[in-house]
Amino acid sequence: MISVEMNPNIIRNIRKVEPYVPGEQPQNRVVKLNTNENPYPPAPGVERVLAEMDTDRFRLYPDPSAAKLVSALAEHHHVGEDQVFVGVGSDDVLAMCFLTFFNSEKPVLFPDITYSFYKVWAELYRIPYECPKLDGDFRIVKEDYRRESGGVIFPNPNAPTAIYEELDFVEDILAHHPDEVVIVDEAYIDFAGRSALELLGRYNNLIVVRTFSKARSMAGMRIGYAVSNPSLIRYLNDVKYSFNSYTMSQVSIACGAEAVRDQAYFQKTIQKIVETREWAKEELQKLGFEFPDSRANFIFARHPRYDAGELFEALKKQDIYVRHWDSERIRQYLRITIGTREEMEQLFAALRTYFKNRT
Ligand code: PMP
What we know:
The protein is an alpha/beta fold. Helix content is 37%, strand content 12%. The protein has helices spanning 8-12, 44-51, 67-77, 89-101, 117-124, 167-175, 230-243, 250-261, 263-286, 308-317, 341-358; strands at residues 31-32, 84-87, 108-109, 129-130, 151-155, 182-185, 206-211, 224-227, 298-302, 320-321, 323-324, 333-337.
């Protein structure tokens, strides 16, 4: 077989991108605190829906409009069905947003330390971008977002810092970009505070993006959505249908719609995670870690005495997975997802042993 590398003409015509590298998904049982999943199962009704599914229907394509899920979400958020757009995880929704709304010669703005997929999409779709630096405390500097732009996107809480900005901050950015779309990626909002959804009535340039992967314990189902005004949602649908109208599987549509209905279970799960997070903050502090105050389901922490890369490797040897990046400014940090209390106890025990053996 002749390798394609032998033919520079073919290579020249291939689009090259630096891909997004997701956290590891080990298939054996480990203490998995590396990709911000939820340690608790999805709402119990999801299991019932799966058991009752009519597999004969799998012969047929799913409903391209995912009406059942859209309608459950519209009811949940008290908005019209024409204000909701669904996709295969919020990554899919965000990618569609980049394609649809950032079609300008001017640069899209997003923080230099943030969800690293934004840069990948910008490059993939040839969208110019600028990344204002976070300040020394990892906060987004709102004044940096007062320049001309082709749009703005940021997560709230930000990732991987876990810092939540209050709504007046979001409003400031919306007000300074009346002619561009501002996307607030609320992947972690359920663990944080007030949502930018409250601002939808006042700003026609706002898109709020949400996911089922975190607070709803359904990362494996791949469900995400955007909420905005009907006109922006219509543009998003036009782009989506131009790609692939049957994006969501019948299974995701049915299970997603069921999960939205069980608010009580949802709230209970969030509460457990927030309680564990607050306790984990105290434990990490006792161990000497430093971290910005987390309002998400993870903590972005460094230890002044121990190298984060070495800690990461040592934990992994004991089947405890956290996240570590090799990039310059955050090399000294670990991002630790909040698991169950037992999982966190295992992590802290491993850290204590590691520190003891080092002194
Ligand atoms: N936005 C942010 C800020 C995230 O951290 C993630 C998860 N890695 C996503 C979006 C994508 O989540 P999903 O595609 O699972 O909905």
